[in-house]
């Protein structure tokens, strides 16, 4: 294996060696079982403040399960997860989730959708609308504040979802294949916009995708999950220069990284298929 790809043990030693005050998400010996089904087994991972971590792996390797554990939608069978030093016990308000499906309120305008979480926190109308407008502008939807979701394209709805999460100012933003349902051109545009938002906001982001190209475009770090049960198979720093746009995909380094990742992913996909056939 190329020396730019850390072994699991080496990567974990490096990340655990970071100053604990810089750790935003600490995943410690986490396993998750549903009856006889083992989704995750002994996952250890530290994610530093301000990292953009992309999780890759075959279908069923536990990526979404891990995201649900981080945000507190579910709880580990064994192990623990801490976000910004606090152990996750139930739904954690310090995590914001963006799903593949847009999960907007159809009866609310763009402005009211983005401001909804602030309203639930008791923030006064003027303040929450000013905050919502700032993030609507950040995601490129200025002028659409009074539109309703049904009048927006899929890409625009997903921008509203991202703006709503940002407006709530979480410590961590979790995205579960948010661009999977979009056409290729819209997906590319939103990838570039998400990178700009990431650089402006400085948030810690964990992003799930099946696309190696998407992972390379977005991440500062890529974690490849093993075939079921899910473990960390490979932990790789993405050293492609930022800001990134479509041109970076033509660089030799991009293709080198893509080949390395594909070799690991292919191995895990084949293991997954073999286990299903057994």
Question: How would you describe this protein?
Answer:
This protein is an alpha/beta fold. The protein has 2 domains: 23-94 and 172-275, P-loop containing nucleotide triphosphate hydrolases (Rossmann fold), CATH 3.40.50; 103-169. Helix content is 39%, strand content 23%. It contains 8 helices and 11 strands. The protein has helices at residues 8-16, 63-71, 110-120, 125-138, 154-167, 184-201, 212-218, 252-277; strands at 5-6, 23-34, 37-48, 52-56, 78-83, 86-87, 95-98, 172-176, 204-208, 221-225, 232-237. It has a 7-stranded mixed beta sheet with strand order 1-11-10-4-9-8-7, sandwiched between helices. Strands 3-2-5-6 form a 4-stranded antiparallel beta sheet. β10 (221-225) and β11 form a beta hairpin. α3 runs parallel beside α5. The radius of gyration is 19 Å and the shape is globular. The chain starts with a strand and ends with a helix. The model is unreliable at 1-18 (pLDDT under 50). Pfam families: ABC_tran. Keywords: ATP-binding, Cell inner membrane, Cell membrane, Hydrolase, Membrane, Nucleotide-binding, Transport. Residues 25-252 form the ABC transporter domain. It is an enzyme of class 3 (hydrolase). Belongs to the ABC transporter superfamily.
